[in-house]
Design a protein that fits this description.
about 350 residues; alpha/beta; Rossmann fold; 6-stranded parallel beta sheet; 15 helices; about 15% strand
């Protein structure tokens, strides 16, 4: 069976890209089609992969910013020719589901319908000037129409969580099965031991709500280590007190070491699923998370962590206090068992069956 893989853009290694990596492990001869690629940022994990970029690559190489190319992305993603393949698997967070495969079977693994077109339009445009906000709002209206119309193209849709499954039904009027993203659970060694620090592993962008955690730990004075980088890093460092340490981006083995030695993982933002909390649980560590989104499907309150209900410092600190009070009741072996439900072997088995069945 000749299989092609499609992924919107290859500019970083995030959760969606880890799914793509697993698909490449499963189907190693498959080429990857993408709107554009940042070769410097992705060459390490795409060394032997045949990557086909769209015509937008030449523009991306000049301006280096995807947001200025959004209006052209529908046209570019539709231009690929998949006629020589038997099956196409798209990994879609915005545009990849819109490929036109004709009679070739198309399985869409959906991380989310287009967030900025449906859920976060106001957040996306709030800091723009009035003329730019007006133009962007018009563009997003066109994108919503395109997004809904092209959602009928995949022969089968798989959601990465029940949370996303509901959004697919709401915005696309499509049914979707749920297959959780692959987590390398066996790479972690669960342990009850810890050093006295809490941990965040995240991109440092406003959407991730890391500023909330910084404010909370400024107030409580507990040690917090933050691994990750992004546009918000300098601002976060400027507001952080000495008990908060920023390590920048680290390789996976280093991240695993910090997870296995932390007291708990702090997960302050809303995610469609959230691989990082499952990785922490694979190391036997509890999670404090904002109680919205896909994390509700992985973390069990009182057993593998705690939730806080509002995006406020007081609500987060209330959750932190409950987590610390309950520490002696957490069983690192049971936490690990919770994580094993999301092991990459489960993803592979279910995806192979789904690919064969379409």
């Amino acid at each position: 069976m000749k299989i092609a893989l499609v992924h919107e853009m290859l500019v970083k290694l995030g959760g969606a890209e880890r799914v793509l990596c697993k698909l490449l492990d499963m189907y190693p001869r498959s080429p990857v089609y993408t709107l554009f690629q940042n070769k410097k940022a992705t060459e390490e994990w795409l060394k032997k992969v045949q990557v086909h970029s769209s015509y937008l690559q030449r523009y991306y190489d000049i301006i280096k910013s995807p947001k200025w190319l959004i209006a052209r992305m529908p046209e570019a993603i539709e231009a690929f020719d998949f006629s020589k393949f038997d099956t196409v698997i798209s990994s879609s967070s915005a545009f990849a589901h819109g490929i036109d495969t004709g009679k070739v079977k198309h399985l869409c693994y959906c991380h989310s319908p287009m967030r900025y077109a449906w859920d976060y339009t106001h957040q996306y445009t709030k800091n723009m000037s009035a003329p730019l906000r007006f133009a962007t709002a018009h563009m997003l209206t066109d994108l919503r129409i395109w997004d809904f119309q092209t959602a009928s193209r995949p022969h089968k849709i798989v959601a990465n969580s029940k949370h996303v499954q509901k959004r697919i039904a709401k915005y696309w009027r499509r049914e979707a099965d749920v297959i959780y993203p692959p987590v390398k659970v066996k790479k972690f060694t669960p342990t009850a031991n810890h050093e006295d620090y809490f941990l965040i592993v995240s991109a440092l962008t406003p959407f991730k709500k890391i500023d909330l955690a910084v404010k909370a730990f400024n107030k409580v004075g507990r040690k917090l280590i933050i691994i990750g980088d992004g546009a918000q890093r300098k601002a976060l460092e400027a507001m952080a007190k000495p008990n908060i340490e920023f390590l920048g981006r680290k390789e996976d083995p280093v991240v695993r070491e910090y997870m296995q030695n932390c007291r708990a993982l702090i997960f302050p933002g809303e995610e469609d699923f959230g691989i990082t909390p499952v990785e922490a649980m694979a190391a036997g560590k509890p999670v404090l998370a904002y109680g919205v989104g896909g994390v509700l499907e992985s973390v069990e309150a009182g057993k593998s962590g705690e939730f806080f209900g509002e995006l406020t410092v007081d609500s987060m600190l209330d959750g932190l206090m409950r987590l610390m009070l309950n520490e002696k009741h957490y069983d690192h072996k049971q936490i690990r068992k919770t994580a094993e439900r999301f092991d990459e072997s489960v993803f592979e088995e279910k995806m192979r069956k789904t690919v064969k069945a379409i």
